[in-house]
Amino acid sequence: VPIIALVIAGWLGYKHFAERGPEIKIIFPQNESLIAGQSVVKFRNIPAGKVTKIYADEESDGVVVVVRMNNKQSKPYLTEHAKFWIIKPEVGVSGISGLDTLISGTYINIYSKAGGKNFKENFVGLTQPYRDSMEGEYFHLVSSTGENTSVGTPIYYKNIKVGQVEHLYLGLDNKNIHIIVFIDKQYSSYVHDDSKFWTKSTMNVNFAKGNIDVSIAPINHLLQGGIVFSSPGNETNASVAYARIFPLYESETQADSTTI
């Protein structure tokens, strides 16, 4: 009986270690309420691993998050295609995100796809959610002030939300604000070389036949702000030149009075 018990225990131990997933390390600038032994890693909204250890990384001035994946089936996705970022509750101009973390707790999300070349054990985490370029297209705007613009500011076309501001940074000349926007795939083809972008007005005043017409934007526009772009001709097969940088005008009036 003791021999049989040892054989069964050995077989169970071997099965456990043979089937468990790989261990990986992800470097983030700082810990965002992740808890070792509790926070999970999700892939396509399915738990795929768990955080086992968190410690400071002296070389990168960040934190290393050690993750043990649940099974070996995750290994083909842990390649150069894998992107990691932390999901937590946030309140921004685009609304409230990460509400599910109020119950489940902060977690790490993964984007990946099969077909990578080599398995990786070390990754650098992202500070913002990853966007697949197949889901839309990025465009580059520049503004002298960046007024009423922040990460998450929505992009509109004909009063339809079609994207949002993803990144803001100060140019090398220390004068202009560079704005990177992401526009959903079904609307990105409406952006042409001669398109114009401007900050959405919260109030419009029109004079017509001696009458004054005042219109105020909806409450969500007042709170969030927004950027609008034009699509001359409304053609959807026009292309945008490589490295094209669009100026961001302060108003529609300024955009209309400017010749490209």
The helix/strand class is mainly beta
Helix content estimate: 10-25%
Alpha carbon gyration radius: 25 Å
Q: Could you give the count of β-strands?
A: 18
**Poorly predicted runs:** none
Order of helices and strands: HEEEEEEEHEEEEEEHEEEHEEH
Globular, elongated, flat, extended or rod-shaped: what is the shape? elongated
Mean pLDDT: 82
Distance N to C terminus: 88 Å
The proportion of residues in beta strands is 35-45%
Spatial sequence of strands, sheet with the most strands: 5-8-2-3-4-1-9
Largest sheet: 7 strands, mixed
Number of helices: 5
List the helices and strands and how they pair.
Layout: H1 2-19, E1 23-28, E2 40-43, E3 46-57, E4 62-69, E5 83-87, E6 90-92, E7 95-97, H2 101-104, E8 107-111, E9 122-124, E10 136-143, E11 154-157, E12 160-170, E13 177-184, H3 185-188, E14 197-199, E15 203-208, E16 211-216, H4 219-224, E17 227-229, E18 245-249, H5 252-256
Parallel strand pairs: 1-9, 2-8, 10-18, 11-17, 14-18
Antiparallel strand pairs: 1-4, 2-3, 3-4, 5-8, 6-7, 10-13, 11-12, 12-13, 14-17, 15-16
